[in-house]
Specification:
Layout: E1 8-9, E2 19-21, H1 45-48, H2 54-61, E3 66-68, H3 71-77, E4 85-87, H4 89-95, E5 100-105, H5 116-128, E6 133-138, H6 142-154, E7 157-163, H7 164-169, H8 171-179, E8 183-187, H9 193-201, H10 209-221, E9 226-228, H11 235-255, E10 261-265, H12 270-286, E11 291-297, H13 302-305, E12 307-312, E13 321-326, H14 348-355, E14 360-364, H15 366-380, H16 388-405, E15 410-415, H17 423-430, H18 441-449
The structure holds pyridoxal-5'-phosphate.
Subunit structure: Tetramer of two alpha and two beta chains.
Protein name: Tryptophan synthase beta chain
Organism: Desulfofundulus thermobenzoicus
Length: 456
Protein backbone atom coordinates (compact mmCIF):
# COMPACT_ATOMS: atom_id res chain seq x y z
CA UNK A 1 0.00 0.00 0.00
CA UNK A 2 1.32 3.42 -0.85
CA UNK A 3 1.24 6.36 1.51
CA UNK A 4 -1.84 8.47 1.13
CA UNK A 5 -1.50 12.16 1.88
CA UNK A 6 -5.16 12.89 2.26
CA UNK A 7 -6.33 14.68 5.40
CA UNK A 8 -9.89 13.37 5.36
CA UNK A 9 -10.77 9.78 4.48
CA UNK A 10 -14.35 8.70 3.79
CA UNK A 11 -15.94 5.49 2.47
CA UNK A 12 -18.13 4.71 -0.50
CA UNK A 13 -21.60 3.26 0.00
CA UNK A 14 -20.24 -0.19 -0.94
CA UNK A 15 -17.52 0.00 1.71
CA UNK A 16 -19.93 0.78 4.57
CA UNK A 17 -20.45 -1.86 7.28
CA UNK A 18 -23.64 -3.91 6.87
CA UNK A 19 -23.18 -5.79 10.18
CA UNK A 20 -22.10 -4.91 13.71
CA UNK A 21 -19.16 -6.86 15.15
CA UNK A 22 -19.95 -8.88 18.29
CA UNK A 23 -16.77 -9.41 20.28
CA UNK A 24 -18.52 -12.00 22.44
CA UNK A 25 -17.70 -14.46 19.65
CA UNK A 26 -13.98 -13.93 20.24
CA UNK A 27 -13.54 -13.27 23.97
CA UNK A 28 -10.47 -15.14 25.27
CA UNK A 29 -12.55 -16.33 28.24
CA UNK A 30 -16.30 -16.66 28.40
CA UNK A 31 -18.12 -13.86 30.20
CA UNK A 32 -19.64 -14.38 33.66
CA UNK A 33 -23.42 -13.86 33.45
CA UNK A 34 -25.26 -10.93 35.05
CA UNK A 35 -26.96 -12.09 38.26
CA UNK A 36 -30.45 -11.54 39.63
CA UNK A 37 -29.77 -9.73 42.93
CA UNK A 38 -32.66 -11.47 44.72
CA UNK A 39 -31.99 -15.09 43.71
CA UNK A 40 -28.25 -14.82 43.06
CA UNK A 41 -28.89 -16.80 39.82
CA UNK A 42 -27.93 -15.75 36.28
CA UNK A 43 -30.59 -13.43 34.87
CA UNK A 44 -32.72 -14.89 32.10
CA UNK A 45 -34.76 -13.10 29.42
CA UNK A 46 -37.74 -13.05 31.81
CA UNK A 47 -35.86 -10.86 34.28
CA UNK A 48 -35.18 -8.27 31.58
CA UNK A 49 -38.45 -8.37 29.60
CA UNK A 50 -40.07 -5.71 31.78
CA UNK A 51 -37.65 -3.06 30.55
CA UNK A 52 -35.95 -4.29 27.32
CA UNK A 53 -37.26 -5.66 24.00
CA UNK A 54 -36.45 -9.32 23.24
CA UNK A 55 -34.32 -8.43 20.22
CA UNK A 56 -31.92 -6.38 22.36
CA UNK A 57 -31.93 -9.03 25.10
CA UNK A 58 -30.92 -11.48 22.35
CA UNK A 59 -28.06 -9.23 21.24
CA UNK A 60 -26.96 -8.87 24.86
CA UNK A 61 -26.17 -12.58 25.13
CA UNK A 62 -25.48 -13.46 21.48
CA UNK A 63 -22.22 -15.12 20.44
CA UNK A 64 -22.81 -14.61 16.72
CA UNK A 65 -19.77 -12.76 15.38
CA UNK A 66 -21.73 -10.59 12.91
CA UNK A 67 -25.18 -9.12 13.55
CA UNK A 68 -26.96 -7.46 10.65
CA UNK A 69 -27.73 -3.74 10.83
CA UNK A 70 -31.41 -3.39 9.79
CA UNK A 71 -31.95 -1.40 6.60
CA UNK A 72 -34.14 1.15 8.47
CA UNK A 73 -31.23 1.81 10.85
CA UNK A 74 -28.68 2.05 8.04
CA UNK A 75 -30.91 4.57 6.31
CA UNK A 76 -30.76 6.87 9.36
CA UNK A 77 -27.03 6.20 9.85
CA UNK A 78 -26.57 7.61 6.33
CA UNK A 79 -27.54 11.07 7.65
CA UNK A 80 -24.01 11.37 9.08
CA UNK A 81 -22.12 8.11 8.45
CA UNK A 82 -19.45 7.36 7.54
CA UNK A 83 -17.95 9.76 10.02
CA UNK A 84 -14.66 11.10 8.68
CA UNK A 85 -11.28 9.64 9.56
CA UNK A 86 -8.93 12.63 9.84
CA UNK A 87 -5.17 12.82 9.79
CA UNK A 88 -4.20 15.40 12.44
CA UNK A 89 -1.17 16.76 10.59
CA UNK A 90 -1.31 20.14 12.26
CA UNK A 91 -1.38 18.52 15.71
CA UNK A 92 1.58 16.32 14.67
CA UNK A 93 3.45 19.51 13.75
CA UNK A 94 2.51 21.27 16.97
CA UNK A 95 3.85 18.31 18.95
CA UNK A 96 6.91 18.03 16.66
CA UNK A 97 6.42 14.27 16.59
CA UNK A 98 7.27 11.62 14.00
CA UNK A 99 4.03 9.85 15.05
CA UNK A 100 1.14 9.74 12.59
CA UNK A 101 -2.01 10.81 14.39
CA UNK A 102 -5.42 9.84 13.03
CA UNK A 103 -8.79 10.50 14.62
CA UNK A 104 -12.27 9.26 13.94
CA UNK A 105 -14.65 12.20 14.35
CA UNK A 106 -18.00 11.20 15.84
CA UNK A 107 -18.97 14.82 16.56
CA UNK A 108 -20.46 15.06 13.04
CA UNK A 109 -23.59 13.22 14.16
CA UNK A 110 -26.70 15.39 14.65
CA UNK A 111 -26.40 14.61 18.39
CA UNK A 112 -22.80 15.86 18.42
CA UNK A 113 -21.44 12.56 19.75
CA UNK A 114 -21.18 8.84 19.03
CA UNK A 115 -24.27 8.11 21.15
CA UNK A 116 -26.70 8.30 18.23
CA UNK A 117 -25.09 5.11 16.81
CA UNK A 118 -26.88 3.06 19.49
CA UNK A 119 -29.86 5.35 20.17
CA UNK A 120 -31.17 4.73 16.65
CA UNK A 121 -31.14 0.90 16.76
CA UNK A 122 -32.46 0.91 20.34
CA UNK A 123 -35.45 3.06 19.35
CA UNK A 124 -35.93 0.93 16.21
CA UNK A 125 -35.97 -2.45 18.00
CA UNK A 126 -38.32 -1.13 20.73
CA UNK A 127 -40.70 0.25 18.12
CA UNK A 128 -40.67 -3.12 16.31
CA UNK A 129 -41.91 -4.77 19.50
CA UNK A 130 -44.79 -2.35 20.02
CA UNK A 131 -43.27 -0.07 22.66
CA UNK A 132 -44.63 3.50 22.72
CA UNK A 133 -42.36 5.26 25.19
CA UNK A 134 -38.72 5.05 26.38
CA UNK A 135 -37.18 6.32 29.61
CA UNK A 136 -33.53 6.93 30.26
CA UNK A 137 -30.97 8.75 32.36
CA UNK A 138 -28.42 11.20 31.10
CA UNK A 139 -25.29 12.66 32.67
CA UNK A 140 -23.82 15.49 30.64
CA UNK A 141 -26.85 15.23 28.36
CA UNK A 142 -25.34 13.74 25.19
CA UNK A 143 -27.16 10.45 25.63
CA UNK A 144 -30.46 12.19 26.41
CA UNK A 145 -30.10 14.25 23.24
CA UNK A 146 -29.26 11.20 21.14
CA UNK A 147 -32.18 9.15 22.46
CA UNK A 148 -34.53 12.11 22.04
CA UNK A 149 -33.54 12.39 18.38
CA UNK A 150 -33.84 8.64 17.81
CA UNK A 151 -37.29 8.49 19.49
CA UNK A 152 -38.35 11.43 17.36
CA UNK A 153 -37.28 9.59 14.16
CA UNK A 154 -39.41 6.56 15.11
CA UNK A 155 -42.38 8.37 16.71
CA UNK A 156 -41.76 7.21 20.30
CA UNK A 157 -42.25 9.32 23.45
CA UNK A 158 -39.17 9.88 25.57
CA UNK A 159 -38.66 10.82 29.24
CA UNK A 160 -35.17 11.71 30.43
CA UNK A 161 -33.86 11.86 34.02
CA UNK A 162 -30.89 14.23 33.85
CA UNK A 163 -28.26 14.32 36.63
CA UNK A 164 -29.02 17.54 38.51
CA UNK A 165 -25.50 19.02 38.42
CA UNK A 166 -25.46 18.65 34.63
CA UNK A 167 -29.03 19.95 34.32
CA UNK A 168 -27.68 23.13 35.91
CA UNK A 169 -24.27 23.17 34.16
CA UNK A 170 -25.50 22.26 30.65
CA UNK A 171 -28.90 23.92 30.12
CA UNK A 172 -28.62 23.82 26.32
CA UNK A 173 -28.57 20.04 26.25
CA UNK A 174 -31.99 20.15 27.93
CA UNK A 175 -33.12 22.58 25.20
CA UNK A 176 -31.96 20.08 22.56
CA UNK A 177 -33.93 17.25 24.19
CA UNK A 178 -37.05 19.41 24.35
CA UNK A 179 -36.68 20.46 20.70
CA UNK A 180 -36.97 16.76 19.82
CA UNK A 181 -40.06 16.39 22.02
CA UNK A 182 -38.74 14.78 25.22
CA UNK A 183 -39.76 15.47 28.81
CA UNK A 184 -36.71 16.17 30.99
CA UNK A 185 -36.50 16.00 34.82
CA UNK A 186 -33.56 17.00 37.03
CA UNK A 187 -32.54 13.87 38.97
CA UNK A 188 -33.07 13.14 41.83
CA UNK A 189 -36.68 14.10 41.02
CA UNK A 190 -40.03 13.82 42.78
CA UNK A 191 -41.33 11.62 39.90
CA UNK A 192 -40.11 8.31 41.34
CA UNK A 193 -39.83 6.59 44.73
CA UNK A 194 -36.06 6.26 44.24
CA UNK A 195 -35.73 10.01 43.61
CA UNK A 196 -37.96 11.00 46.53
CA UNK A 197 -35.95 8.78 48.89
CA UNK A 198 -32.65 10.42 47.93
CA UNK A 199 -34.18 13.91 48.23
CA UNK A 200 -35.45 13.11 51.70
CA UNK A 201 -31.95 12.11 52.81
CA UNK A 202 -30.16 14.90 50.95
CA UNK A 203 -32.36 17.67 49.50
CA UNK A 204 -29.26 19.23 47.86
CA UNK A 205 -28.03 16.02 46.21
CA UNK A 206 -26.22 16.92 42.95
CA UNK A 207 -27.39 13.59 41.56
CA UNK A 208 -25.36 10.88 39.86
CA UNK A 209 -25.78 8.57 36.92
CA UNK A 210 -26.46 5.73 39.37
CA UNK A 211 -29.40 7.65 40.89
CA UNK A 212 -30.79 8.71 37.51
CA UNK A 213 -30.66 5.09 36.27
CA UNK A 214 -32.71 4.00 39.31
CA UNK A 215 -35.35 6.59 38.44
CA UNK A 216 -35.53 5.69 34.74
CA UNK A 217 -35.67 1.93 35.43
CA UNK A 218 -38.39 2.38 38.06
CA UNK A 219 -40.46 4.49 35.65
CA UNK A 220 -40.11 1.92 32.82
CA UNK A 221 -40.76 -1.12 35.01
CA UNK A 222 -44.06 0.42 36.15
CA UNK A 223 -45.63 0.73 32.68
CA UNK A 224 -46.33 -1.88 29.99
CA UNK A 225 -46.01 0.53 27.09
CA UNK A 226 -42.63 1.79 28.34
CA UNK A 227 -39.11 0.38 28.13
CA UNK A 228 -35.80 1.63 29.38
CA UNK A 229 -32.76 2.47 27.23
CA UNK A 230 -29.17 2.63 28.45
CA UNK A 231 -26.56 4.69 26.59
CA UNK A 232 -23.46 2.70 27.50
CA UNK A 233 -22.09 -0.24 29.56
CA UNK A 234 -24.28 -3.07 28.19
CA UNK A 235 -23.10 -5.52 25.54
CA UNK A 236 -25.71 -4.54 22.95
CA UNK A 237 -24.74 -0.86 23.25
CA UNK A 238 -21.07 -1.61 22.58
CA UNK A 239 -22.16 -3.89 19.72
CA UNK A 240 -23.96 -1.01 17.97
CA UNK A 241 -20.98 1.29 18.47
CA UNK A 242 -18.68 -1.05 16.53
CA UNK A 243 -19.72 0.77 13.35
CA UNK A 244 -17.08 3.31 14.47
CA UNK A 245 -14.18 0.84 14.51
CA UNK A 246 -15.35 -1.09 11.44
CA UNK A 247 -15.42 2.10 9.39
CA UNK A 248 -12.14 3.28 10.91
CA UNK A 249 -10.33 0.03 10.09
CA UNK A 250 -11.47 0.33 6.47
CA UNK A 251 -10.53 4.02 6.32
CA UNK A 252 -7.09 3.35 7.85
CA UNK A 253 -6.50 0.70 5.19
CA UNK A 254 -7.43 3.27 2.52
CA UNK A 255 -4.90 5.64 4.06
CA UNK A 256 -2.32 2.85 3.89
CA UNK A 257 -1.84 2.38 7.64
CA UNK A 258 -2.69 0.09 10.52
CA UNK A 259 -2.57 1.61 14.03
CA UNK A 260 0.11 0.73 16.59
CA UNK A 261 -2.11 2.16 19.30
CA UNK A 262 -5.87 2.81 19.50
CA UNK A 263 -7.07 5.25 22.15
CA UNK A 264 -10.47 6.37 23.41
CA UNK A 265 -11.88 7.87 26.58
CA UNK A 266 -13.85 5.51 28.78
CA UNK A 267 -16.91 6.28 30.90
CA UNK A 268 -19.17 3.27 30.46
CA UNK A 269 -16.96 1.97 27.66
CA UNK A 270 -19.13 2.45 24.57
CA UNK A 271 -17.04 4.79 22.41
CA UNK A 272 -13.91 2.92 23.47
CA UNK A 273 -15.40 -0.49 22.68
CA UNK A 274 -16.92 0.89 19.49
CA UNK A 275 -13.58 1.99 18.12
CA UNK A 276 -11.35 -0.65 19.69
CA UNK A 277 -13.28 -3.94 19.38
CA UNK A 278 -12.72 -4.49 15.64
CA UNK A 279 -9.00 -4.01 16.36
CA UNK A 280 -9.28 -6.26 19.44
CA UNK A 281 -10.62 -8.89 17.02
CA UNK A 282 -7.39 -8.64 15.01
CA UNK A 283 -5.34 -8.78 18.20
CA UNK A 284 -7.14 -11.82 19.64
CA UNK A 285 -7.54 -13.84 16.44
CA UNK A 286 -4.44 -12.82 14.46
CA UNK A 287 -2.06 -11.72 17.21
CA UNK A 288 -1.50 -8.21 15.82
CA UNK A 289 0.50 -6.16 18.32
CA UNK A 290 -1.93 -3.23 18.39
CA UNK A 291 -2.21 -1.60 21.83
CA UNK A 292 -5.72 -0.64 22.98
CA UNK A 293 -5.83 2.11 25.59
CA UNK A 294 -8.93 3.20 27.56
CA UNK A 295 -8.59 6.58 29.28
CA UNK A 296 -10.63 7.64 32.33
CA UNK A 297 -10.54 10.59 34.78
CA UNK A 298 -8.41 10.36 37.94
CA UNK A 299 -11.54 11.62 39.74
CA UNK A 300 -13.49 8.50 38.72
CA UNK A 301 -10.78 5.84 38.24
CA UNK A 302 -12.92 2.75 37.68
CA UNK A 303 -10.52 0.66 35.57
CA UNK A 304 -7.28 1.85 37.13
CA UNK A 305 -8.25 1.69 40.83
CA UNK A 306 -11.63 -0.04 41.07
CA UNK A 307 -12.31 -3.67 41.93
CA UNK A 308 -13.42 -6.35 39.45
CA UNK A 309 -16.53 -7.87 41.05
CA UNK A 310 -20.29 -8.09 40.81
CA UNK A 311 -22.01 -4.77 41.43
CA UNK A 312 -25.24 -2.98 40.69
CA UNK A 313 -25.45 -0.61 37.76
CA UNK A 314 -27.49 1.88 39.80
CA UNK A 315 -27.72 3.28 43.32
CA UNK A 316 -31.07 1.83 44.39
CA UNK A 317 -30.05 -1.73 43.42
CA UNK A 318 -32.79 -2.21 40.80
CA UNK A 319 -30.52 -3.47 38.00
CA UNK A 320 -28.99 -6.94 37.66
CA UNK A 321 -25.55 -7.42 39.19
CA UNK A 322 -22.90 -7.01 36.51
CA UNK A 323 -19.35 -8.46 36.57
CA UNK A 324 -17.24 -5.34 36.07
CA UNK A 325 -14.65 -2.99 37.46
CA UNK A 326 -16.46 -0.73 39.92
CA UNK A 327 -15.87 1.94 42.54
CA UNK A 328 -19.06 0.83 44.34
CA UNK A 329 -22.57 1.77 43.25
CA UNK A 330 -22.85 4.35 46.06
CA UNK A 331 -19.72 6.16 44.83
CA UNK A 332 -20.45 9.87 44.36
CA UNK A 333 -18.01 11.20 41.76
CA UNK A 334 -16.79 14.80 42.12
CA UNK A 335 -18.40 17.32 39.75
CA UNK A 336 -15.75 17.20 37.03
CA UNK A 337 -16.77 18.69 33.69
CA UNK A 338 -16.47 15.44 31.74
CA UNK A 339 -19.97 14.49 32.93
CA UNK A 340 -20.09 11.46 30.63
CA UNK A 341 -17.17 9.88 32.49
CA UNK A 342 -18.72 10.16 35.97
CA UNK A 343 -19.91 6.57 36.36
CA UNK A 344 -18.99 4.15 39.16
CA UNK A 345 -18.88 1.05 36.93
CA UNK A 346 -17.78 0.06 33.44
CA UNK A 347 -18.75 -2.17 30.58
CA UNK A 348 -18.39 -5.86 31.56
CA UNK A 349 -16.80 -6.54 28.14
CA UNK A 350 -14.19 -3.80 28.52
CA UNK A 351 -13.62 -4.80 32.16
CA UNK A 352 -12.95 -8.40 31.18
CA UNK A 353 -10.56 -7.37 28.39
CA UNK A 354 -8.64 -5.20 30.87
CA UNK A 355 -8.45 -8.15 33.25
CA UNK A 356 -7.21 -10.39 30.44
CA UNK A 357 -4.52 -7.93 29.37
CA UNK A 358 -6.01 -7.20 25.93
CA UNK A 359 -6.88 -3.61 26.90
CA UNK A 360 -4.73 -1.14 28.90
CA UNK A 361 -6.25 1.53 31.15
CA UNK A 362 -4.89 4.98 32.01
CA UNK A 363 -6.23 7.87 34.14
CA UNK A 364 -5.85 11.58 33.37
CA UNK A 365 -6.31 14.69 35.47
CA UNK A 366 -8.87 17.33 34.58
CA UNK A 367 -6.40 20.16 33.98
CA UNK A 368 -4.21 18.06 31.69
CA UNK A 369 -7.25 17.06 29.65
CA UNK A 370 -8.36 20.67 29.12
CA UNK A 371 -4.81 21.72 28.24
CA UNK A 372 -4.69 18.99 25.58
CA UNK A 373 -8.16 19.95 24.35
CA UNK A 374 -7.07 23.56 23.79
CA UNK A 375 -3.93 22.41 21.94
CA UNK A 376 -6.12 20.19 19.75
CA UNK A 377 -8.64 22.99 19.11
CA UNK A 378 -5.91 25.45 18.15
CA UNK A 379 -4.27 22.88 15.83
CA UNK A 380 -7.23 21.16 14.20
CA UNK A 381 -9.99 23.75 14.65
CA UNK A 382 -12.45 21.51 16.51
CA UNK A 383 -13.43 22.08 20.16
CA UNK A 384 -13.51 18.58 21.67
CA UNK A 385 -16.03 17.34 24.25
CA UNK A 386 -14.36 17.34 27.70
CA UNK A 387 -14.79 13.55 27.70
CA UNK A 388 -12.92 13.14 24.41
CA UNK A 389 -10.17 15.38 25.79
CA UNK A 390 -9.10 12.47 28.00
CA UNK A 391 -8.21 10.52 24.87
CA UNK A 392 -6.34 13.53 23.49
CA UNK A 393 -4.25 13.86 26.68
CA UNK A 394 -3.15 10.24 26.16
CA UNK A 395 -2.45 10.90 22.46
CA UNK A 396 -0.16 13.75 23.47
CA UNK A 397 1.74 11.38 25.79
CA UNK A 398 2.07 8.76 23.06
CA UNK A 399 3.18 11.32 20.47
CA UNK A 400 5.83 12.72 22.80
CA UNK A 401 7.02 9.20 23.65
CA UNK A 402 7.31 8.54 19.89
CA UNK A 403 9.41 11.69 19.54
CA UNK A 404 11.60 10.56 22.43
CA UNK A 405 12.07 7.14 20.81
CA UNK A 406 12.36 8.58 17.30
CA UNK A 407 9.60 6.23 16.16
CA UNK A 408 6.98 6.89 13.48
CA UNK A 409 4.16 5.19 15.42
CA UNK A 410 0.66 5.29 14.06
CA UNK A 411 -1.89 6.52 16.60
CA UNK A 412 -5.65 6.30 16.12
CA UNK A 413 -8.05 7.90 18.57
CA UNK A 414 -11.75 8.53 18.89
CA UNK A 415 -12.91 12.12 19.00
CA UNK A 416 -16.19 10.96 20.50
CA UNK A 417 -17.93 14.34 20.35
CA UNK A 418 -17.61 18.09 19.98
CA UNK A 419 -17.68 20.46 22.94
CA UNK A 420 -19.84 23.23 21.55
CA UNK A 421 -22.41 22.75 24.32
CA UNK A 422 -19.64 22.50 26.92
CA UNK A 423 -18.33 26.04 26.52
CA UNK A 424 -19.07 27.01 30.17
CA UNK A 425 -16.59 24.28 31.13
CA UNK A 426 -13.97 25.83 28.83
CA UNK A 427 -14.75 29.28 30.28
CA UNK A 428 -14.11 27.92 33.75
CA UNK A 429 -10.83 26.35 32.61
CA UNK A 430 -9.63 29.52 30.87
CA UNK A 431 -10.55 31.58 33.95
CA UNK A 432 -8.34 29.28 36.06
CA UNK A 433 -11.31 28.03 38.08
CA UNK A 434 -10.91 24.30 37.48
CA UNK A 435 -8.86 22.01 39.65
CA UNK A 436 -7.63 18.44 39.67
CA UNK A 437 -9.37 15.84 41.78
CA UNK A 438 -7.58 12.83 43.13
CA UNK A 439 -9.74 10.22 44.79
CA UNK A 440 -8.32 9.62 48.31
CA UNK A 441 -7.67 5.97 49.14
CA UNK A 442 -9.92 6.10 52.25
CA UNK A 443 -12.88 7.37 50.22
CA UNK A 444 -12.33 4.56 47.72
CA UNK A 445 -12.10 1.90 50.42
CA UNK A 446 -15.24 3.24 52.09
CA UNK A 447 -17.17 3.04 48.85
CA UNK A 448 -15.85 -0.46 48.05
CA UNK A 449 -16.84 -1.64 51.55
CA UNK A 450 -20.47 -1.11 50.49
CA UNK A 451 -20.25 -3.61 47.59
CA UNK A 452 -22.94 -6.29 47.60
CA UNK A 453 -21.74 -9.69 48.88
CA UNK A 454 -22.60 -11.97 45.98
CA UNK A 455 -21.17 -13.97 43.17
CA UNK A 456 -18.12 -16.15 43.11
C1 LIG B 1 -21.12 9.76 26.84
C2 LIG B 1 -19.88 10.19 26.25
C3 LIG B 1 -18.66 9.56 26.56
C4 LIG B 1 -18.55 8.48 27.59
O1 LIG B 1 -19.32 7.34 27.39
P1 LIG B 1 -18.73 5.98 26.85
O2 LIG B 1 -19.85 5.03 26.95
O3 LIG B 1 -17.57 5.60 27.72
O4 LIG B 1 -18.33 6.23 25.46
C5 LIG B 1 -17.53 9.98 25.91
N1 LIG B 1 -17.55 10.99 25.02
C6 LIG B 1 -18.69 11.63 24.70
C7 LIG B 1 -18.65 12.73 23.71
C8 LIG B 1 -19.88 11.24 25.30
O5 LIG B 1 -21.03 11.84 24.96
Amino acid sequence: MSENNEIKILLTEKEMPTHWYNIQADMPRQMDPPLNPVTGRPVGPDDLKAIFPLSLIGQEVSRERWIEIPEEVREIYRLWRPSPLMRARRLEKALDTPARIFYKYEGVSPAGSHKLNTAVPQAYFNKQEGIKRLTTETGAGQWGVALSQACNFFGLECTVYMVKVSYQQKPYRRSMMEIFGSRVFASPSRETAAGRKILQEDPDSPGSLGIAISEAVEDAAGRNDTNYALGSVLNHVLLHQTVIGLEAREQMAKAGYYPDVVIACCGGGSNFGGLAFPFAHDKITRGTGVRLVAVEPTACPTLTRGRFTYDFGDVAGLTPLLPMYTLGAAFMPPGIHAGGLRYHGDSPLVSRLVQDGIVEARAKNQLETFKSAILFARSEGIVPAPESAHAIAQVVDEALAAREAGEARTILFNLSGHGLLDLPSYDAYLAGQLKDYFLPEEALQKSLAGLPRVGK
